[in-house]
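Journal club prep — side note

Before the paper discussion, L.F. wants everyone to see what a predicted structure for a comparable chain looks like in token form. Sequence:
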Amino acid sequence: MFLLILLCLALQVFWTASADEDFFINDVGYDDGTYGDYPQHTYKSTDITSPKLNILQSSPECSNDLYTMITQRGWSVSQARATILDSDGHLVWTVTGYDQIYNLMVQKYKGEPYLTFWAGDDAVGGHGAGYYYMLDTSYQEIARIPAAKGFSGDLHDFRITDNGTAIITVYDVITANLTTLGKPENGDLWECRIQEIVLETGELIFEWRASEHYDITETYRDIGDDGTAGRAFDFFHMNSIDKDNKGNYLVSSRYMHTVTYISGATGEVIWVLGGKRNMFTDLSGGEATNFAYQHDARWNGDFTVVSLFNNAIDDGHTNLAPYTRGMRIKLDQEKMTAELIGEYINPHHIKAVSQGSFQNLPNGNVFMGYGNTAAFTEYSSNGTALCDTHFGPQHLYGTGNVQSYRAYKFEWHGFPTTNPDIKILADSENNWNIYTSWNGATEIHTIILQGASNSEDPTSWEDLEVVTKTNFETAFQIYELYPRYMRVLWLDEKDIVLGVSNPLDAVEEKVWALPPLRLDEGELWGLKILIGFAAFTGAIVAVREAWVVWKRRAKRVHWVDEGEELRVQREILLR
């Protein structure tokens, strides 16, 4: 018993500083909905939330130096948000307040990295009406970009080119002859446009219209009750645009089942891959050209390979294929042949009825987001699944319960201009703790808890505890030796202070307000036992307090003014 008591006291001393809850590891209950329709992390230092992941598979071969970027929305997501996660699934940054959000990614403009995304109303006939946003490395909004000619920017794509332009998707309703589909001669049709605009001025330098190059009878979509006034028919559904070194455009059409190559000089169609107008000989027995309802078609490397996310199904045709797959297709544009050279299939044979993304990573791996289903998977170049993660339960896949239009991985360095968040709270055992987090800070290595008897005296602050940052939120237990005022410093790996929280007053927070001890006459025997036990634990307490003092040893840090010197350091880091 003596040893057991000693062990318990020792465990209280060496208390962990990590405050995040654990994520799930290959948890069947997660995917069955045992923990709810959308398990989330909540934090004590801030009111933001993040998805609680179910990590089904992990590997050191994954691109663990990159951040995962998703935009959660759906029936169980109370606020649509953009989110950045680290390789362990911990939150790095999140934001709300932009209505619906799509396509969070990192793009470069004039050599500088920016977070870009679309935000607006996504309930416009399966399209979007909104703007494209650019945030700098301090998460300040530096641009809100509209489409040209008074149109609303569509949600499907926004790509910045090396020439300082952006290519975007635009939808608008036109009048068209729909008699070949049994509808009026002057029916309503959704037009799909490519626009390329100059970012600085908004000048339109190129526009292409699908209705001028595709006949409505080439669509695979049933017209149903659409095509009449107020119910425009979406015959093409453009969902991605890419541009090559020749200045030509690569366009994915979901309802045509095509990838179309378009001249940047004339707008004429150069060739069509897939669909009813396929121009390529399939060297893979039909497997290179049989994609359907696909998304995110992009050129790879030397512009001889096209990659895409082959949904293979949609809401009305869920049995067309056994699963969704990623595809890499090698094209010979002289011989007009197509060959499937890479195939990427989720171990759980996910069927994504809509949305999705395919990304070629710098290390040769492939990263796929499953759109309508809350999952993302990283594969080796040969198609082996390396890392597989769910951010919503699998039993609701296909319902739109939790989804992200695309999921990507990028390098990112964030320097928020806000102060770190900090709160003092009591835990379930009535131990008082300081909790701290800093939304968006990527360069943090060390967090220091400091205390002072006079918060106004800069020389009064001394180190109380030093920890290495591991999670989004960090907790420090408060001891009786600690002074009245406390704050936290956030340092990079060179011990440069990047952020300082506001000081907290332990007296105002009532940390030391303990209830008085009252004992009845019959309970004095218990007090005598406690006094005897106190003598025994005195040594243990001494050890604990000595450990606290040891942790309060000063750590050499470097203060850098938030000015030119810090700006230069950030620029050096981002090179």
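L.F.'s comment for the group: Confidence is low (pLDDT under 50) at residues 1-16, 514-524, 562-575. Keep this in mind when we get to the figures.
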